[in-house]
């Protein structure tokens, strides 16, 4: 009986150690996913962003670049960091700490288009987490997109805190789900929700308020000062 008890105690001890080890491994994985991927993504985004700005300086004002980097998103509610915007929303794009504009299932308009919906996605957690603070955006808040030669100033007019990941209606040229029924110049930000999951999507809609030409000093609009 004593030997059996000792065996059971030994097995319990081993099982406990395995659980502790598994917990440590899981903890390290979480640290990697939510911290180290941010570090790597931010480094990549900073490098790409500097390259885009360098090309702008060399080429001077001109048309939007839809290949390397379209421009930079500035959202005061997110803090002072700028977000490089590139083409596409696949992981190979978004995992590099940028926002991407949709090419499918509904093709995004671009800011310079006379009408349409400029639709963007970015990670909320890990890989730069550029839209982590999307819940801080309120009606009337500015969202500013900076291209090579123009500032596009949008104002938030509607948020949708949760919708299915399959809801493509939020990306339509006229986002009817936001209450709009006429063509205009809109912007839509999309990301995962709740935090640390990808079960649903959080949506923010804005409408173009005005544009400003970029001057020689790239003086930002008043919303960013």
Highlighted features:
hydrolase, 225 residues, globular, 28% helix, transmembrane helix, single chain, 8-stranded mixed β-barrel, Sortase, Chain: A
Blueprint (SSEs and pairs):
Blueprint: H1 2-59, E1 71-74, E2 82-87, H2 91-94, E3 99-101, E4 116-121, E5 142-146, E6 150-164, E7 185-193, E8 200-213
Parallel strand pairs: 2-3, 4-7
Antiparallel strand pairs: 1-2, 1-5, 3-4, 5-6, 6-8, 7-8
Question: What is this entry, summarized?
Answer:
With 225 residues, this protein is of the alpha+beta class. 28% of the residues lie in helices and 28% in strands.
Poorly predicted regions: 14-29
Order of helices and strands: HEEHEEEEEE
Shape: globular
Q: How many distinct folded domains? A: 1
Strand order of the largest sheet: 1-2-3-4-7-8-6-5
> Can you give the mean pLDDT?
87
CATH 4th-level superfamily? Sortase
Transmembrane segments: 12-36
Keywords: Hydrolase, Membrane, Transmembrane, Transmembrane helix
GO molecular function: hydrolase activity
Pfam family, one: Sortase
């Amino acid at each position: 009986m004593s030997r059996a008890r000792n065996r059971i105690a030994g097995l319990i001890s081993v099982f406990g150690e395995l659980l502790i080890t598994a917990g440590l491994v899981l903890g390290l994985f979480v640290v990697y996913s939510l911290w180290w991927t941010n570090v790597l993504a931010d480094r990549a985004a900073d490098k790409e962003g500097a390259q885009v700005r360098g090309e702008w300086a060399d080429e001077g004002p001109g048309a939007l670049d839809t290949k390397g980097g379209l421009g930079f998103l500035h959202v005061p509610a997110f803090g002072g960091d700028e977000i490089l915007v590139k083409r596409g929303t696949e992981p190979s794009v978004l995992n590099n700490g940028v926002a991407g504009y949709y090419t499918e299932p509904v093709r995004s308009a671009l800011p310079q288009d006379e009408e349409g919906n400029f639709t963007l996605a970015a990670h909320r957690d890990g890989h730069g987490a550029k839209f982590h603070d999307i819940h801080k955006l309120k009606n009337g808040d500015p969202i500013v997109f900076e291209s090579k030669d123009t500032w596009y100033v949008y104002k938030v007019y509607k948020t949708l805190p949760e919708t299915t990941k399959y809801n493509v209606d939020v990306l339509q040229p006229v986002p009817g789900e936001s209450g709009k029924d006429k063509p205009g110049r809109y912007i839509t930000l999309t990301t995962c929700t709740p935090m640390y999951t990808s079960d649903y999507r959080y949506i923010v809609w804005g409408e173009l308020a005005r544009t400003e030409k970029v001057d020689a000093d790239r003086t930002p609009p008043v919303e960013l000062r």
